[in-house]
Amino acid sequence: MIGSGARVPALYSAAKYLFARGRLAPAIQRYWPVFAVICVMSCDSSNATPARWPDWRLAATSSGTSEILRDDGTCTSCLALQPRPLIDHRTGPGLVDESQFVTVDSSGRVWAGNSAGHKVYAPDGDYVATVGRTGDGPMEFRAGGPLFTDATGRVHIIDQISFRETIVGADFRLVETRQLPVGPVYDLAPVGEGQRVLVNAAFLDADQIGKPLHILDSGRVVASFGAPNDTAFLASTGLLRRRVAVAPSGYFVVAKQYEYELELYSVAGARLLRIVRPNVWPSPPGGEPKALAVDDELWGFVQDVVVDTLDRAWVLSWEPRKEWRNNVSVREAPDGQKIVMPRDQAIPWRRSRVEVIDLRSGRLIAEQTYDVMLWGFFGPSEMYGYQYVGEGEPQLARFHLPLTAR
User: Fold this and answer.
1) Centroid of chain to Cα 148
2) I need a labelling partner for 37 at 20 to 30 A (CA). Which of 96, 113, 117, 288 fits?
């Protein structure tokens, strides 16, 4: 860690120099050590945007630390899954594809997408249409990517290979295509009506190296932020991955994917506070997911995050099961390395955990684990996942997840 901020610009410039010349190693040591503290307040709170921010207990700890409070009031049975209509098409054009990129449009229709097109289902689960197809032209895609519905009802779809944003109207017609900067986009959330978008991306531009967060305005980067300001670092794919959400009151909640760390940012990109739960699960070696070696520990990760109107963060994570090693087989790779593989693909190594954290007080309100593999949020209290029948055909399952009293 660099103790003097004066040394950071020189190291940052050196990193840019190496990046521009292709000499930047793809895997590096983690730039952010595991903290024993649970919450650290940023020095710059001048751009704080959460409502009634001075009243937040966490905001008052600018010179100290504050723990996420897991106490007798933390409920472990208040998040019961309630199934909604199941999307179960096993044949024909509506055949369900397992996709992590899913959204609900303004009519309640579910969009689930990949490079072959985005399948749209009615609220009752009936197949409606397929939007797009494989290719490089308008309404064509090379790789499925994150998507969202904006405040006007249009669906925005990111292509991970052609680096384009396609905007589709409620009538399934093309509204606009925007060329994006080169680099993978991992997650996004609309800011306002959708012209502006908060994205987590590894854009391949020397001026954006190591900055995982960006604001796009009509596809153009207008701000990049999120890099530590007191640490020398280089960029790697795993270390840059985040899950992002925009709170109803306007501030940004950002979760590192492989470390349980939540950060809050103002709309101007100033970090307001950071909340960490250390030692929740092992991290991938070097911060990068890889094939498991015999001596590796299985890591967990944050799968999704949303914020409700009461400034509560709903965090979905996939955590290792304690008994995961009971379902492993060992294979030898061509280079002689021994790789751990699942013995039975139907038995998952991880389980889902949903936690609700009051960002104002730092209190863990509720937590619950599930054997159902939940993939993401449609919004607070609304989730989706996949379950499998027959020879492994996926069904897209929807759930209501209300936070109830004990």
Assistant:
1) 13
2) 288
Q: What is the pLDDT of residues 135-166, one digit of tens each?
A: 999 999 998 889 999 999 999 999 988 999 99
Among 163, 164, 160, 172, CA closest to 111: 172
CB atoms within 10 A of CB 326: 11
For residues 239 and 289, the answer to whether their CB atoms sit within 8 Å is no
Distance in angstroms (rounded) separating the CA atoms of residues 353 and 318: 6
d(CA 402, CA 406) in angstroms, rounded, equals: 12
Gap between the Cα atoms of 304 and 318, Å rounded: 10
Rounded to an integer, what distance in angstroms lies between the CA atom of residue 187 and that of residue 276?
A: 20
Tell me how far apart the terminal alpha carbons of the chain are, to the nearest angstrom. 45
β-strands 328-332, 39-41 pairing: unpaired
Cα torsion 71, 375, 284, 264 to 10°: value is -60
Q: Please give the backbone phi and psi of residue 399, each rounded to the nearest 5 degrees, phi first.
A: -135, 145
What are the tokens at 214? Answer: 């960006």
Planar angle of CA 42, 48, 49, nearest 5 degrees: 145
> Residue 174 corresponds to which amino acid?
L
| Strand, coil or helix: 59 | helix
The answer on pLDDT for 314 being more than 60 is yes
Which string of DSSP letters, residue by residue, matches 101-156? -EEE-TTS-EEEEETTEEEEE-TTS-EEEEE-EESSSTTEESS---EEE-TTSPEE
Q: CA–CA distance from 212 to each of 147, 270, 281, 377, 402 (Å)? A: 18, 14, 22, 22, 32
Residue 359 DSSP one-character state:
T
Number of residues that this document lists for the chain:
406
